[in-house]
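Journal club prep — side note

Before the paper discussion, L.F. wants everyone to see what a predicted structure for a comparable chain looks like in token form. Sequence:
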Amino acid sequence: MPTREELALTVRTVISDVLGTEPDEVHERTSLLDDYGIDSLELMEIGARLERTLKVRIELQDLTAAQNVGHAIDLLQSRLAVPQ
């Protein structure tokens, strides 16, 4: 299982790839909706890429429930800790 720092880098990189930004522009407190106006297709693309990269199942409601990037990282970390 990756460390939280490794997971955070992966999440920030995937988000920045989908949104066309730099990973260092995406922070723990970044709200994808408020800060980037992300739409459902972009959110689904982020989820699909994270599933492939992390080899974990991510429910759409988990992604939509995440209030910011840090919350999404915490959610993914707890998902990775549970055997699939």
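L.F.'s comment for the group: The chain has a mean pLDDT of 92. Keep this in mind when we get to the figures.
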